[in-house]
Amino acid sequence: MSQKLLTTGAFAKLCRTTKETLFHYDRENLLKPKYTAGNGYRYYALDQLWDYEIIATLKDIGSSLREIRYYLQDTDPDRILSFLQEKDRALDEEIARLLRRRLFLGDMLKSLQELSSSTPGTVTLVRQEEALLEVWPIAPADARNACAVWETFYTYLEYYRERSRVVRWPFGMILNRLDEEDGQPGAAPRPGRYVWRCFFGLAAGQTGKAVQAPDRMPAQMPDQAAEQAAELPGTPDPLGLAVRREGLYAVCLHKGNYLEQEEALTAFLDVLERRGLRHDGQIFCSDMLVYSRHKDKTSYVNRYSVRLEEDESAARRAGTSFPLDG
Prior knowledge:
It comes from Candidatus Desulfovibrio intestinipullorum. This is MerR family transcriptional regulator. This protein is 38% helix and 23% strand. A 9-stranded antiparallel β-sheet has the order 8-5-7-6-10-11-9-4-12, sandwiched between helices. It has a 3-stranded antiparallel β-sheet with strand order 1-3-2. The radius of gyration is 30 Å and the shape is elongated. It has helices at 8-15, 19-27, 48-60, 65-73, 77-116, 146-162, 222-230, 261-274, 312-316; strands spanning 5-7, 35-36, 42-45, 122-128, 131-137, 168-178, 193-202, 240-244, 247-256, 283-287, 300-307, 321-323. Strand 2 (35-36) and strand 3 (42-45) form a beta hairpin.
């Protein structure tokens, strides 16, 4: 019995594809018609449906037409196994890349949702859960040199890029306030001067992925982790783990130009002091518009937070807000 042949249109309909796709596969020597008539009409056999499905499947797993042609030239089992193992590894890498994109998108949403629901210039007392942070120390010699801090920041980002990772939100810097002139015993306090301690981001372990803490730096307070790492010059991996403790935090968002931020931070700490709210001295600072930079130079929004020392009075104020200048 003669084999039933289908026109290009009928074969394309069975394959849920287009005639143009079949013409392209013919030109690429991937799937040629079973028979070509003298008038140029192409005809395909039913058993070529399986050939088309192999091509479609290989395309679905990310194979190029060149790779598919290589595969179809020789279907020796060992050769096929090697080819598919290579595609399996490539798919694992693609899945990891997509998961990183999803994490990045989720972090963007969290940042901008918090920004849209907050009022800049207002201090709010909120409870925050414990969080494991990845911290990157800033060397003490660089801590008050803006250029050196920025250089450290780009080294920090490069560390993640080289490992195909993203810094997780919330991320930013941890600062300490200096109340005395260094090297001048007895000098009058000068509030408003700050020193950068480390950069921080949410540890990957917070999403269910394991994070191995370096043996030299167990999870601890952020300033302790930064100080210990900074004492280890030349070590290949200064990234460490630290804990942001659970507790009552004072949080303030300030919108303004870049040069106003230190003044706003000083005002934030001063208003806490006036209201009798003591804190542990670690200042978490995050740029809320890091994902949405504006041309308007007055549109910087920084988020400042400190963990309060809780007493009965402070605990009663959880959930309350007051103006930064109040």
